[in-house]
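Shipment paperwork, digital attachment
Item: protein structure file
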Amino acid sequence: MTETEAGRVLAVCRIALLVVVAGIQPVLSLPGVHGTADWSAFFALAGVTVVAACWVLRGRAVPMPVALAGAVVVLAASAVATWVVPPDELFGDQHWSFGLVGWHLLVLLLDRPAFAVGALAMQVAVNLGRLVTTTPADRAEIGGVAIVVLSVISFQLATLALVRLVYRRARQAADAAAERDRLANRKALAEQLEVDQRLRFAGQLGATLPLLAALADSTVDPRTEETRQRCVLAATQLRRLFAENDDVPDPLVHEVSACVDFAERRGLTVALAVSGEPTPVPTAVRRELTSPLMTALVGARSQARVSVLRGGDEVRVAVITDGEPGKPGESPHGSPRVRVECHTLGERLWMEAKWRSGPT
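Attachment content:
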């Protein structure tokens, strides 16, 4: 059950009470209505019912200002109808408003239990006030009045308590269902993330495993510079891939730093400069931005300078080394999303990957 369904339960209860009021007032109350004051009170209660129906029939609670104003009208109508009842007819057939007024108050204040209880207490006070102003009655009559008052009010209070209990249970069921949904979504996301990670690692290892197999089969010579560069490139790619899965504030700089750190472990002197504020960069784009960097670092002989430049909607990763690209004669190619430039400046190699956010 969702929160919306819990609200619908309460809406159904409001409509049920409205139907009770609309049925009781004309059917059971009309025979006891006599005189101008009675009719004024009767139509005032009917008007309150119509006004409340404007919200109740649409599944909404009566707004607080309207509910309080309606409660005042209901209590005033009750006082008028009670004071015109002959003393010997109090809580009898002629006292048509006594059992009716409480249901009007519940229709108005069902969503506000404290106000509803207070209004019902005021309704009882109005009727008891009228009782004490009449000729003193004997104990039997007082006992009969007490039974009538308690039976009517207790039934209305029990109805209020039952409705609130049903609504509270519905809310609890809705909260439990929402929590189950959150846990199920979290589990599904975790499983999907695990699958994505496995696919990424499998894709990266797909380029590494053939190299390992070739080394094991002795189809490539580990003493050659080309094989060594292939091994270094594969190791750098794996290092960057591990960094890709870390939860950090600036993933791009973190992955670039992982590549730089691995190059420094190989004995290179690498300077890293970062400018601009962190910019959200999709994972696939980060891979394309760091790919030329890894290729350049693999071919560096002793030193390199790496720059991460971020400004406006543009992100650049540039590198200058004193060597050649990872594989002689080849350089990384760009894509529709990331443009790659590669130039040789004397004995130095300059490579830059550029990505511009937004439509390409």
